[in-house]
Design brief:
- The chain has ten helices and two strands, in the order H-H-H-H-H-H-H-H-E-E-H-H.
- The protein has a two-stranded antiparallel sheet with strand order 1-2.
- Helix 5 crosses helix 6, helix 6 (about 100-115) packs across helix 8 (about 145-155) and helix 7 crosses helix 8 (about 145-155).
- About 50% of the residues lie in helices and about 5% in strands.
């Protein structure tokens, strides 16, 4: 029987005409190995956008990742942080009850760094972010939000970020928000100002009056 069927390609023929998926996966895994989990997600998201790949972010729905977020075991969250993640800024600020503009700015920076939904998370905030936070929670707008951020930096609660006009919360600010606030929950009370006794001014007697007084004596 003369069979003119298609001949099977030689071993490795498909490899030469097609890309190896597993090899590509290995290269991606090796490239992402040195990065942390959140950095890997960001790199993969950027790569998908660059390649025009659409679809849901499957990285963030991994069962282990869901279990980690549910248990509140995020490595980047400071001690004393809330176990519930992805809360809204209005709820968070109302819970912390900052009693000054500087504490408010620190609370907002902390929220965006650790408590906001991952899609909105950012390491630093600008004056626009601070003013928008006022609008979100129904707080009176700041006259100069940029100056408020600078004041918080001067007081050691925020640090300057790489972007111009942006500030990020530091460990001191983290402790303020995570541990001290709200003040009515056992935080340290503000020290009372001591009254400084005022010195009585000496009354100067005119020379003529002083001379007349001495003559009467």
């Amino acid at each position: 029987m003369n069979c003119n069927c298609f001949a099977l390609p030689a071993e490795g023929a498909f490899m030469s005409s097609q890309h190896d998926d597993l090899d590509a996966v290995k290269k991606v895994v090796d490239a992402l190995e040195p990065f942390q989990s959140e950095e890997r997600e960001r790199i993969i998201r950027w790569a998908c956008e660059k390649l025009g790949v659409s679809g849901q972010r499957s990285v963030g729905t991994h069962p282990d990742r869901q279990r980690e977020e549910k248990d509140g075991e995020r490595r980047d969250a400071p001690a004393g942080g809330s176990a519930a993640r992805g809360t809204d800024i209005r709820t968070f600020v109302n819970e912390k009850k900052p009693d000054s503009d500087i504490q408010f700015a620190t609370t907002v920076a902390y929220f965006y760094a650790f408590e906001s939904p991952e899609a909105e998370r950012k390491l630093s905030i600008s004056s626009d972010d601070l003013q928008n936070a006022c609008r979100y929670i129904g707080r009176e707008r700041l006259n100069n939000p940029g100056q408020t951020l600078r004041n918080a930096c001067y007081q050691g609660l925020l640090d300057k970020a790489e972007e111009k006009g942006a500030y990020k919360v530091n460990t001191v600010g983290e402790n303020l928000v995570a541990v001290t606030l709200p003040n009515d929950a056992g935080g340290p009370a503000k020290p009372k100002r001591k009254k400084v006794p005022t010195k009585k001014k000496k009354v100067s007697i005119p020379k003529k009056a002083a001379k007349k007084k001495s003559q009467n004596k």
